[in-house]
Design a protein that fits this description.
With 391 residues, the protein is an alpha/beta fold. The chain is built from 14 helices and 12 strands. It has a 7-stranded mixed sheet, sandwiched between helices. The chain has a 3-stranded antiparallel sheet with strand order 9-12-11. The chain has a two-stranded parallel ribbon with strand order 1-10. α8 links the parallel β5 and β6. The longest helix has 22 residues. The chain binds pyridoxal-5'-phosphate (PLP). The site of pyridoxal-5'-phosphate (PLP) has 13 residues, from α5.
Length: 391
Amino acid sequence: MIRLSKRAAGIAESATLAVTAKAKRMKAEGIDVVSFGAGEPDFDTPEFIKDAAKEGLDKGLTKYAPARGTLDLKKAIVEKLGRENGLDYKPSQVVISCGGKHALYGAFQVLVEAGDEVLLPSPYWVSYPEQIKLAGGKVVELRGEEKNDFKLKPEQIVGAINERTKILVLNSPSNPGGFAYTPSELKAIAEAVVDKDIIIFSDEIYEHLVYGEQKFVSFATLAEGLLKKTVTFNSLSKTYSMTGWRIGYAAGPQEIISAMGRLQSHETSNPVNFCMYAAIEALQGDQSCVVQMREEFTKRGQHMWERLNAINGVSCIRPMGAFYCFPNVEACYEKLGVAGSVAFADAVLDRIKVAVVPGVAFGWDTHVRLSFATSMEQIDEGLDRFEKLLT
Ligand SMILES: Cc1ncc(COP(=O)(O)O)c(C=O)c1O
C-alpha cells in the first residue's frame, strides 16, 4: 500500500487541463467534440518568434543557462515593464520561470508560512488555492457578487485583513470570466491596502487581452509605496500564443525575487534556453500580432456572450478581458437532472459532445467556464447544440 504525502494527497488535478485532455481523447476516438475547455489561444505562435527560437538552437542555446533566467531576457522584461506598464525594476528584481504558473508557485513557496492567510478573490483561477495549500497557507476566499461583475470593493478586502494575512491575490482581467477592474476601481483598492502589512500578487497575464472601453493598468503603479510590496506576474503564454514554450516571470522586491531564484535553482533550473532567446524577440519585435489576436478575441467574446444570454436559463456577465465567458447555468440544472457544475459539464459532454469547465473549480458551482479561444464556427456549432439541449 503506497502512502502519499498529505501534501500530495490533498491536491486536486487542474480541472481545466483535465477537461481539455478528455475532449482531446474523445476527438482522437473520432467523436465530434466542440471544446470550450482551452485556456490557450488557438493561433499559432507568430512566425518571427519561431524563427528566433530556430536561430537560438543554431547558436547552440541548448545547454543550461542561469537558473533564474538569462540577463538579456531580464533586461528585455525590465524594458517592457517600463515602456508598457510604467514599472521601474532592475534586472535583478526579475525572475524568469517555466510559465507564470511556476512563478506564482515559487512566490507562494518563499513567502507563506504554515497558517498564513492568503486573500483570494472568488471566482479564482484554479491553481491559486492548490498552490496556496501546497505552501501551507490558508485560503481566505473573498466571494464577489455577480451583480457587481464579481468585483470586490476595497472595504471587503480591508475587512478581511488581520495579523495573519500575508498576501492578497489580484488577477485582472481574470480567469475565469474576463472580469476586469477599471483603473479607478483598482486605484481605490490600491489606496486601501498600501498601508497594510501585506504583499500583493498582481497576476497581469491577460493585460493585453482587454476589450472595448476597458483599460489596463499595472497595480503597482497605483499608489506611492506599492512597488515595494507588490509582486507583478506575467507570461508570454497568452499574449504571444506561446503556452507550450513555458516562459513566464515575476518582478518585485529584491528579497522575494532572490528567494524565488534560489528555490528555482533546486527545482527546475533554467527555463528552456532557446525559448528565452526567442522571448526577447517576442517582447521587442513587431507587436501587431498582439493587436490582431485582440481584435479577433473581441469579436468572438462579444458573439459568445450575446448567444449565451439568449439561451434559456443561462445568464452571463460580459467578458471585458481574457478569453472566457463564465455563465450562470444553475437555472438549467433541473431540466438536465443534475445537481451541480461537474454533473452539468459531464451531461453536456455526454449528450451534446460539448466540453466546458465546471465552475466549482473556480469556486462557483452555479457556473461553467467556456473559452472563446476557438473559431467562430466552433463557437456557433457548440452554442447551437447548447440551445437545442436547453430549449
Ligand atoms: C490567471 C492565470 N494566471 C497564470 C496562468 C499561467 O499561465 P502560464 O503558466 O502558461 O504562464 C494562467 C493560465 O491559464 C492564468 O489563467
